[in-house]
Amino acid sequence: MNDHLKRTLRLLVHLQAGGAMTTAQIAETLGTTPRTARRYLEKLREAGVRFEPGKPGTHRLGRGFWLQPPDLTLEEAAALTLASEVGNALPTPLDRPLREAARKLRAALPAALVAADGEATPAVSLAPSPREDGVADDVYARLDRAIRERRSAACLYESLTKPPESFRFDPWELHFSRRAWYVTGLHHGRGERGEARNLRLSRFTRVELTDTRFEVPESFTMARHLGSAWRMIRSPDGRIDEVRVRFLPAFAETAEATLWHPSQESAWHDDGSVTLSFRVDGLDEILWWVLGYGPGARVEAPPALRERVAAKLEEAAAAYRADDPGRRAAGPEPA
Question: Are residues 251 and 198 both part of a single domain?
Answer without folding.
Answer: no
